[in-house]
Amino acid sequence: xxxxxxxxxxxxxxxxxxxxxxxxxxxxxxxxxxxxxxxxxxxxxxxxxxxxxxxxxxxxxxxxxxxxxxxxxxxxxxxxxxxxxxxxxxxxxxxxxxxxxxxxxxxxxxxxxxxxxxxxxxxxxxxxxxxxxxxxxxxxxxxxxxxxxxxxxxxxxxxxxxxxxxxxxxxxxxxxxxxxxxxxxxxxxxxxxxxxxxxxxxxxxxxxxxxxxxxxxxxxxxxxxxxxxxxxxxxxxxxxxxxxxxxxxxxxxxxxxxxx
Length: 260
What we know:
Helix content is 70%, strand content 0%. The protein is built from 8 helices and no strands. It has helices spanning 14-44, 60-71, 80-108, 119-150, 160-171, 180-209, 216-246, 251-255.
């Protein structure tokens, strides 16, 4: 169950929510990491995705082949350790914050606004705030992950410890919070829409697809996938801006990804 529900049979503890956020983050990251690497490479490429324009990457299949040829298969899992740290920290803080906010909001709102019809609305605001809290906690790891993933061969950073040291030399602690403002601008509506859409799709699913008025694991997965897809489509331009800002001062690594 995502979001506070006073009628829920088994009451979950903050530890349960934290564990759910951590495990879901680890599993999702393990499966999606190669796609995330491709996304970041495309986001940081300023040339158009067309043949004959000097672009290094012109499509998904071509990019996979290019990365495999130049950097090896495991390049698709570059920055995976940092990414897993990001997923765990973000997932824990997000789920715990969201459950805390929805529980307290439920008792503060008038009774008519806590009905299923309005639940997507206050879940949107609670999800947005939870996303901002999680972002402030995990932003340094996100910047580190972006740097590790975007570097080509030869590598600028030999590992996490080396990357942290070099990044600190750039501008101190501020380096690890580059792109924070657009990230917060992106994450509030993105997280809000994700939780809001999930609540909305779940409300539609129960009476149509469930005889017992229960969503179940399959229904929850479908509603969650739909919520993530809709949210990402709407917010994607801000994600592009965030990634560009996170690699400011990192031109050396980006240049090394371009063929001579």
